[in-house]
Amino acid sequence: MNNKIINLLAIESSTEICSVSIISFNLNGVIKDLISSKIYKENLPSEHIIPTIESILSKTKLDKSELNAVSFDQGPGKFTGIRLSCSIAKSIGMFLNIPIIPVISLYSMAFQAQMESSNDYDIIVSSIDARMNEVYIGAYLIGASNGSCKILFEPILISVSDLSLWLTFHTNQWKSSYKKTNIILVGDSWYVHKSELIIPRGIINSGITNPASHILAMIAKNYFLDTSKIFDDVEPVYIRNKVAFTRNELFYNNGGNPRTSSFLSEIDIIQMAISDINDVVSLDTKVQLSSWSYGNFQDCLDAGYIAYVVKYKESLLGFFVMMLAPDVAHLLRIAVHEDMQNIGIGSKLLDKCIQISKENKLNSIIIEVGEHNINAVNFYKKHGFAKIGRRKNYYVLKNSKTESAVVMEKKLLE
Q1: Where in the chain is the domain with CATH 3.30.420.40?
Q2: What is the pLDDT, as a whole number, of residue 67?
Q3: Residue 303's pLDDT band (boundaries 50, 70, 90)?
Q4: For the structural domain made of 107-210+244-252, what CATH number should be given?
Q5: Domain spanning 5-103+212-225: CATH superfamily
Q6: Residues 217, 10 contacting (CB under 8 angstroms)
Q7: Which residue has the higher pLDDT, 297 or 287?
Q8: Phi and psi for 365 in degrees, rounded to 5?
Q9: What is the pLDDT of residues 131-143, one digit of tens each?
Q10: Is pTM, for the whole model, over 0.85?
């Protein structure tokens, strides 16, 4: 019985590079044959998929009636592509009365990355360019030995401008939960939008850019042999239902369906509470030249200073403490988690400082910055601050040495 050969057809057309494969295996999962054929983007998939299927059947000397299952990439991906592969798979499956097996495109690439990895477990972050300045993204924890898969993040649609922040935030979460596990990137988004992205240190780019039908076939083989699997969702996964901007949307720089919510818009800036101080001290110690104690922060709250924290899903990303004088705001402390810098959080905190200062009709904001902290000095310059002075030996460092500070000011009321 276990020597019976199963022939499974796999159709992949969710991205620009389409392909068709046939895998033959026995009921023990042993692969007897696997053959694939690509359809390149200069050829229309709608005109070439059926002839390619016929060609690959001919190469394997199989008749359509000898197929035992058919699989397709259900997306997310190109709208026309996933509709096409779905309709062809359903037509073949219904005509032959054989199982129709859908596979998620993002998982297909993650599965391939794990196959090529030498690690026991990897976290694979899959992302496909969705055009319109947006990407599809999902994340998986996959085991090499048993092929187990835990979905860390179901496929969603996010804007390119939020991709670095999304990746950095979740990377920090995963590193704390899954120690000694590599994080690997797959998909074309990391190449298409390379110039716009900041990738956290230590993350590996696999080089896999597109789903492939031979990988799809191997996943579908596993699904076919898993008697607990029920294939009742044989429709494309769209995530969004819009494929292009209208002329007005292009003209006014609007779009989306609806326009994807900003990751930064989901971040909460709230007043600092006593319960936040332990996390604030921990962050302050990691990023500041000279750190404050728990008592310093508590004294500020007791004195009624302006103090806010920025959080995402209860994780502290940054904070600031500001003292309001009769005509000037003194920004005493501002910090962003070291792995969440350069992606907009500092600007969001500073905007809050400026907003509060203007609401109190203050003339300006001043801040001290380590004179050798060129990145910080340039950050404040970008936001309209100018150097107005220098405070010698202002910071006392951990090694008992000192560093001077430059005093910077932003005029609010001219």
Answers
A1: 5-103+212-225, 107-210+244-252
A2: 96
A3: very high
A4: 3.30.420.40
A5: ATPase, nucleotide binding domain (3.30.420.40)
A6: yes
A7: 297
A8: -120, 135
A9: 888 999 999 998 8
A10: no
Mean pLDDT along residues 135-158: 86
Please give the class, per CATH, of domain 267-411.
Answer: alpha beta
Where does the chain hold its CATH 3.40.630.30 domain(s)? 267-411
Compute the distance between CA of residue 8 and CA of residue 192 in angstroms, rounded to an integer.
33
User: What pLDDT shows up at residue 252?
Assistant: 47
- Encode pLDDT of 33-76 as tens digits: 999 998 876 666 678 889 999 999 999 999 999 999 999 999 99
